[in-house]
Amino acid sequence: MDADSLSFRGEGSGVDAMLGMRTESTAGRRDGRSHGEMRAMSVSYGELTRADGSARVRLGTTDVLVAIYGPIECPHNKQDAEAVHVHVAFGRREAMSNVAGAETGAGTESMITRDLEALVSDVVLATLHPRKAVVVAVQVLADSGGVICAAINATTIALIDAGLPLRALPLAASVSIHNNAIIVDPVVVEEREADAVVCIVFDTALENDDGFMSVYTMGDCGGEELFAATVEVCRQLVVKTRAFFRLSLERKAAVHHIWNAP
Amino acid sequence: MISEDVYRKVHPKEYLKRFIDKDVRPDGRAVSTARYLRLTIGSINTAVGSALVRLGNTTVLAGVNATLIRPNNANPDKGIVEVSVELLPTASGESRNVRGEEAVVLAEFLRTLIIPHIDVSTLCVEADKLVWCLSLTVYCIDHDGNLEDSVVLAAVAALRNVRLPTVRMVDGDEGGDIENGIENTRMIDADNEAEEGNESIMAVVSSKRTESLELDNFPLTVSFQLFCEKALIDPSAEEEVVCVSRVTFIMKPTGDMRGILKEGGHILSPKLYNSCLAQSKERVKEYMKKLQAGS
């Protein structure tokens, strides 16, 4: 195999993200993960006592806490006679702009807020609660890559924790593309070095689904074939993510259920 | 029986559905036909680069202003590019807050697309002393839908139209000779007001503008709105209000796909995705034809 040819797709051998060179499948990334390995994920429910539902999702050291309040009273001017109004408040712990040349500022917050509003409005059964509001408060506690992904997953879990009926179960996964190689669950430094960072949201409630719900690409995806491979990689990740969340939800439900053996 | 105008106002979704079911749109276009694009480049003399985009009734004007400033300490050999978008009150009947919010999102959208393509080290005149600061402002004058594509196209066309004068640094002594002598130049004095005791920078700027930014690779976007299992290319404002979800394909000038943005919870099926991708490639050819004709 010539080391110059870096055009492989999806499940190829590992790639050294920094040098763009092919290495063995287990080595390569700074934290020792292989190209297809996600960071450890953890989820906890109901940490906030005043919220109707809350979930905290950790992806490695990325930490996102989402609180859901709803259905609650909606201010008059925002009321919709046929649907629930969704309001998203997105916050980070660090200051918005820093001296080291921040590309993210009020603009990215606006974009993520708008994206979450669109997602939650489409997923919650909006016609069940007309003239009411659902408030989604997202707080990023630590950002080491994959924040949008964690925020979307945490929002979905928090909605389940709040007991709001959902039309779909959106879960997200993000990958980055370096020199035509796909790397799963990038950290901040890998995101910065990447040619592109792609975050895709799938509806995991559907059994046979070829499409996707949302997609955010930042950078150059390298053409439609590579993008198609990226979609497949993200889909497999989301299947794993779903299995994990399902397991944790079953455990949570088991605690609150008393089962009488026949 | 109610009249068509009333039905259009009271049941906008059903009104649009009646057209889409027959594969046409209220303005007579087919579902996969975009509006006629008019691109006028370089019409504003007070800006170093400008472009006016008219996509149907949507009118967007982009202008680039250039000033010479001292670079900041973090990046002494790089120029600065500032991007802002404004939705003028003439654009739509929305309140100032709503227009402001939409402008912020459009500005961020434009910034993330455009900034990576501009090589800011070419904007440096002399490291640590003098750099160009380009401020790109995009004004939306009339909002009839698809501001995303219009804003990006106008910005790209304006940046390609930018012609900067040549700048040469001089010492204080030489300054006197130049003022008396050469006719095609102009002295400028850029100094840093913040610190005392800083020497002022003197430079000679030619009055002819010839340096272009050499923007070879730039993003071109093609947006669709999803409605009833169909994708409407280049949506009008009336359609945008009623449709469920926007998909924007980010393409390269060659027609290859660079990225895709889609928000919301409605599924984009592979069939629709492929159809949109094919339409985007065709649309990029149209953009390139107009860009090359104008510049």
Structure characterization notes:
- Chain B: Belongs to the RNase PH family.
- The complex is a heterodimer of chains A (262) and B (295).
- Chain A contains four helices and eleven strands.
- Chain A is of the alpha+beta class.
- Chain A has a single domain, classed as Ribosomal Protein S5, domain 2, CATH 3.30.230.70.
- Chain A has a five-stranded mixed beta sheet with strand order 3-4-5-7-6. A four-stranded antiparallel beta sheet of chain A has the order 9-8-10-11. Chain A has a two-stranded antiparallel ribbon with strand order 1-2.
- In chain A, a hairpin with a 2-residue loop joins strand 4 and strand 5 (62-73).
- Chain A starts with 14 loop residues before the first strand and ends in a 6-residue tail after the last helix.
- With 295 residues, chain B is an alpha+beta fold.
- In chain B, the strands form three sheets. In chain B, strands 1, 2, 3, 4, 5 and 6 form a six-stranded mixed beta sheet that branches. In chain B, strands 11-10-12-13 form a four-stranded antiparallel beta sheet, with helices on both faces.
- The A-B interface holds A 99-101, 103, 106-108, 110-111, 114-115, 118-123, 167-168, 170, 196, 198, 201, 203, 206, 209-221, 223-224, 227 and B 74-75, 101, 104-105, 107-109, 111-112, 115-116, 244-245, 250, 252, 256-270, 272-273, 277.
Strand adjacency order, main sheet of chain A = 3-4-5-7-6
Please describe the biggest sheet of chain B, giving its number of strands, its sense, and whether it closes into a barrel.
Answer: 6 strands, mixed
Distance between the termini of chain A: 62 Å
CATH class of chain A: Alpha Beta
CATH class of the largest domain in chain B: Alpha Beta
Oligomer: heterodimer
Q: Could you tell me the strand content of chain A as a percent range?
A: 25-35%
Q: Name the CATH architecture of the largest domain in chain B.
A: 2-Layer Sandwich
The name CATH uses for the topology of chain A is Ribosomal Protein S5, domain 2
What is the SS-derived class of chain A? alpha+beta
Mind telling me the C-alpha Rg of chain A?
A: 20 Å
Instruction: Count the domains of chain A.
Output: 1
Count of alpha and pi helical runs of chain B: 7
- Helix-and-strand structural type of chain B: alpha+beta
How much of the sequence of chain B is in beta strands? 25-35%
Order of helices and strands of chain B: HHEEEEHEEHEHEEEEHEEH
Can you tell me the overall shape of chain A?
globular
By CATH, the architecture of chain A is named 2-Layer Sandwich
Give the name of the CATH superfamily of the largest domain in chain B. Answer: GHMP Kinase, N-terminal domain
CATH superfamily of chain A: GHMP Kinase, N-terminal domain
Protein name (chain B): Ribosomal RNA-processing protein 43
InterPro entries (chain B): ExoRNase_PH_dom1, ExoRNase_PH_dom2, ExoRNase_PH_dom2_sf, Exosome_comp_Rrp42_subfam, PNPase/RNase_PH_dom_sf, Ribosomal_Su5_D2-typ_SF
Subcellular location (chain B): Cytoplasm; Nucleus, Nucleolus
GO molecular function, one term (chain B): mRNA 3'-UTR AU-rich region binding
